[in-house]
Design brief:
- The complex is a heterodimer of chains A (128) and B (282).
- Chain A is built from 1 helix and 6 strands; from the N terminus they run αββββββ.
- With 128 residues, chain A is α+β, with helices and mostly antiparallel strands.
- By secondary structure, chain B is an all-alpha fold.
- Chain B is flat, with a radius of gyration of 19 Å.
- Chain B starts with 7 loop residues before the first helix and ends with a helix.
- The chains are: A alpha+beta (128), B mainly alpha (282).
- Chains A and B meet through helix 1 of A and helix 1, helix 2, helix 3, helix 4 and helix 5 of B.
């Protein structure tokens, strides 16, 4: 019967065992997600970070977190700097925010934002 | 050879061939944005189905073409699991190297991206292991012809054609271009695409003396050729429709849009189901 009774060497056993673990884990993970993880619609939370002075203005770090399990596409977020004397708007778009994930970026203002003057709000997003 | 252990460097070479095959067939996919997106957009159910279909195709391919001539179902499963496992590892590595997965992403996003790509990678690995090797064993020819005569013809044809169609067309299926072509082409052009797919596929199988066609395709009568071509195109359309559905390309489309897309993707799938099929089994 030619060579078809060759036995596996340690390398092949290693690859087979690692592969089996990966495949069954993947399979199990998908089944687990299917049964136990509830699909929740996208839910975007915006967190503003520190203000850094740049050449052309003041950059504010922004983190958008999708707390739902579904993906949001083209998430447009508006940040308004409202001080006593003036109002300035900035906008940022995240192409994709997958479920339970976050995206980071910066928005730039010409005036220096002070505490409590920044307000953010999600203008809208698509469901892919 | 008896029951001796296989030398380590033989196994290493075999894995290297497999990895080369996997990369050859799936690097275009790994470099495609729509595929990364599908990884986190797809729901667990389609992902699970895709994974199962992938495992099934691997089993089938190993059964009909795979390395060993005589094997039990368990050995076939073991082989398929190994290829899928190596496929997952290779995919994860390439996605990491190209910066597509990072620890900051959620686990379901990472796993989705890997699963979407790993199926094609694994089929490529399987093809690479069995087809890209040099002539180390001269009994390969006889092995193949023996296998062909001993298996039911239509089932074998359909299954390997499915593998070929998925291998070739999955590179194109998730892209935006399919829907753009489908929706912007006039109907008579779609018809031309369909006729082109059928005639090229039929010619490859029955007329132009393509590598492997003589030994693996029965063509005694015109009737056989007609039926064979029909089956080839049917396989191409079914696999196209499945992939389009999986990659979310049917969402919100009218029936006309769905059919048009299937025809557009049916072209590469038909090439896979004819030329691809002959190449991966010869």
């Amino acid at each position: 019967m030619k060579k078809n009774k060759e036995e596996k060497n340690w390398l092949e056993w290693l690859v087979t065992i690692v592969s089996a673990i990966l495949v069954f884990f993947t399979f199990g993970f998908l089944v687990y997600q299917l049964i136990f993880v509830e699909n929740t619609p996208a839910d975007i939370e915006v967190v503003l970070g520190e203000v850094t002075q740049k050449d052309n203005g003041y950059a504010v770090a922004i983190t958008a977190k999708n707390k739902g399990s579904e993906t949001a596409e083209n998430v447009i977020i508006e940040i308004v700097l409202q001080s006593v004397e003036s109002e300035e708007k900035a906008q940022i778009t995240f192409t994709y925010l997958p479920g339970k994930s976050s995206g980071n970026g910066w928005v730039i203002f010409t005036l220096k934002p002070k505490d409590g003057e920044l307000k953010s709000h999600v203008l809208g997003y698509e469901i892919p | 050879m008896g029951t001796s252990e296989k030398p380590i460097n033989e196994s290493l070479k075999e894995y290297a061939r497999g990895i080369t095959g996997g990369l050859l067939f799936s690097l275009p996919m790994l470099y495609t944005m729509e595929l990364w997106w599908t990884g986190f957009i797809a729901d667990p159910l389609p992902l699970l189905l895709y994974f199962i279909v992938g495992m099934f195709l691997l089993m089938v391919y190993n059964h009909y073409v795979g390395i060993r001539e005589e094997h039990s179902l368990l050995e076939g499963l073991e082989e398929s699991i190994e290829e899928m496992g190596v496929g997952i590892l290779l995919t994860a590595f390439i996605l990491w190297v190209t910066g597509r997965i990072a620890p900051s992403m959620s686990f379901s996003e990472i796993s989705g991206k890997i699963i979407v790509e790993a199926v094609t990678v694994a089929i490529g690995i399987s093809v690479g292991k069995s087809q890209l090797g040099g002539n180390t064993d001269e009994d390969k020819e006889s092995k193949i012809s023996q296998k062909i005569t001993s298996k039911p013809h239509v089932l074998r044809t359909v299954n390997i054609a499915l593998c070929g169609a998925i291998l070739i067309a999955s590179n194109v299926a998730p892209t935006e271009e399919v829907i753009v072509i489908a929706l912007e082409s006039e109907i008579f052009k779609l018809l031309i695409i369909a006729l082109l797919s059928i005639s090229i596929g039929g010619a490859v199988l029955y007329y132009i003396n393509f590598k492997g066609a003589k030994t693996t395709v029965v063509h005694s009568t015109t009737w056989n050729a007609l039926v064979g071509t029909l089956i080839m195109y049917a396989v191409a359309l079914v696999s196209s429709a499945f992939m389009l559905w999986f990659f979310g390309r049917f969402n919100g489309l009218s029936l006309y849009g769905m059919v048009a897309e299937t025809v557009v993707l049916g072209f590469p799938a038909a090439l896979g189901a004819s030329a691809g099929r002959l190449l991966i089994q010869s």
